[in-house]
Amino acid sequence: MKNADSNPSVSNGTSKKHAVQKWHHTASSTTILWLAVSLPLVIWDIGYVFGRPHTMPDGFLHWPLYVPYALYGEVDHVYGWKAFNAKNGFTAAQTALNLVETVMYLVYLYMLWTRADKAFDSAKRTLSGRDGALAVVIGFSAAVMTLSKTILYWANEYYSDFDNIAHNTPMDLLTLWIIPNGAWIVLPTYMISKFGGDILDGLTLASSQSVKTEYNKHEGSG
């Protein structure tokens, strides 16, 4: 009986199997849905912060677009008159990072919609090659920024004795601050897991192919 090594058809089949092994990135539905919801909200937030004081109560830009911030500025004083009058730079500083993140997410989505592989007949957008690698690195970096900045936002409250939110009732704090802001911890963590998994898969595949190539070279010279 011939073993697989002596069977040309088997070895050729094995070679073909290795040859077609290809890394690609497929955007998850959860990621797309989250970006569809979060990006307009973040852009809205950027407009409010950089438009202060005109976007605040009694400002000429306040009504109707930024009316909800009258309530939120009372819930979280980082967004209210207290921080603005004190010239607290944290609000604008974290918003500047929001702007960078937003641009990165938009670049990711642009690449996803304009450079998707035509070969994959699927409802989900798929990228491969250098475009896929670049999109994943951008998405991963943006998600890490979002998570890190949100944790910093929470840590700022913790280390300042909850100076900006301690006045709220437990129910108001839960429904108007913890749950809304918590979404920017849970979903970016999920995205980091997905993007990071794709990066690890790509590095593992590249490393495996590199090892096989070196092995084949040694076999050929032997």
From TrEMBL:
Tagged with keyword S-adenosyl-L-methionine: no
Transmembrane portions of the chain: 32-51, 95-113, 133-154, 174-192
Descriptive protein name: C6 transcription factor
Alphabetically ordered keywords of this record: Membrane, Transmembrane, Transmembrane helix
Signal peptide start-end: none
